[in-house]
Design brief:
Helices cover about 60% and strands about 0% of the residues. It has three helices and no strands. The protein has helices at about 25-30, 35-60, 65-75.
Amino acid sequence: MDPQEGEEPAEPGAEPPEPPDFDEAAAALRRRDRVFVFRFLLRMGVALLLGLWIFFFILEQDVGDCAARGFVGVTAPQ
């Protein structure tokens, strides 16, 4: 493949150029920006705790038992 006009071939071992619309979050993560990593881990921690809270809340409410009682009328022998 011939390089386009105005472009020089890349040197061996050189990093490929980043695309112009490179994601800002990915760039911060690549730089290992401490504030970005902290915010990212904080958000993931909050999401995990919220997910666990919802999971255990559903377990306490006996949702499965309620659903089973709802299907008794449909599946019970006539």
